[in-house]
Automatic annotation (TrEMBL):
UniProt keywords, alphabetically: Methyltransferase, Transferase
Alphabetized InterPro entries for the sequence: SAM-dependent_MTases_sf (IPR029063)
GO molecular function, one term: methyltransferase activity
Matches recorded under SUPFAM superfamilies: S-adenosyl-L-methionine-dependent methyltransferases
Superkingdom in the source lineage: Bacteria
Name of the molecule in the record: Class I SAM-dependent methyltransferase
Biological process according to GO: methylation
């Protein structure tokens, strides 16, 4: 496994990087397959600019690297080969414009203001700009437990409750309750959701309705019965 992220702080330059330490091992693990790939990348939150060289050194040389922040001073932190956009991650018009101008993205990292409405609005407007097989990463989701950020334990408006709700959306193929729990379009788009300590990673995977297989002597039979018996023919 790569040690790129774990080794990066010791190799950092004069720009401050601000991450929780345990993210580095998780990034080494979940992003290993992305190292050196030319991709389209967006990070929300620049602060002192320490993450720009981190992502630039990890991703391929032809990558499109976009960073956004609400603080106009961050404009000066752009590096050659990176783009900086100034605006509010809770402003739908700004997000839509960034998505139109620079998307679609393969990787999106939200390390911005960490308030509930910021994380949720950003997800709603940027998820459609994420490519198939791309990852949407939200950092510092422990703010979901902090009233000062709009969170609180089991606070319905928190990002962590929003993310838990995505688990249900992903499984909404399997509903037996069309009225109370209808099929949601995200069932066709979410491949997986990983909850780490303080990090949520949502994978986009454009999917057909799931089928089961029966295999014997090399013969494979596919069946839609798992959904058809639940009256879900309409979704095929
Ligand atoms: C945690 S720092 C980013 C750290 C940086 N990503 C790193 O890894 O070193 C958070 C940044 O989010 C920015 N921010 C706060 N609210 C924002 C908002 N509503 N829209 C965009 N950026 C915001 C702040 O100005 C600050 O620079």
């Amino acid at each position: 496994m790569t040690r790129y992220f774990r080794d990066f702080p010791a190799r950092s330059g004069d720009r401050m990087l601000l991450k929780m330490e345990h993210y580095l091992e998780i990034y080494d693990e979940i992003l290993a397959g992305w190292q050196g790939r030319d991709v389209s990348f967006l990070e929300i939150g620049i602060y002192k600019g320490g993450s720009l060289p981190m992502w630039q050194g990890f991703l391929g040389p032809a990558s499109r690297l976009v960073f956004l922040d609400i603080d106009p001073a961050c404009r000066d932190l752009a590096l050659p080969g990176t783009l900086v956009e100034i605006g509010d991650q809770a402003d739908p018009a700004f997000l839509d414009r960034v998505g139109r101008d620079h998307g679609p993205f393969d990787l999106i990292v939200d390390d911005g203001g960490h308030k509930m409405h910021q994380q949720i609005t950003s997800f709603r407007h940027l998820w459609p700009r994420l490519r198939d097989r791309g990852l949407y990463i939200v950092e510092d989701v422990h703010t979901s437990y902090w009233p000062g950020f709009g969170g609180g334990f089991r606070e319905p408006a928190s990002f962590i409750e929003f993310a838990k709700d995505l688990i249900d959306r992903m499984h909404s193929w399997y509903t037996e309750d069309d009225a109370g729990f209808p099929l949601h379009p995200l069932a066709r788009e979410i491949g997986g959701i990983r909850f780490h300590d303080s990090l949520v990673v949502i994978e986009k995977r454009l999917k057909e309705p799931p089928v089961s297989i029966a295999a014997r002597n090399g013969q494979v039979t596919r069946s839609r019965r798992i959904l058809e018996v639940r009256g879900r023919r309409s979704i095929f």
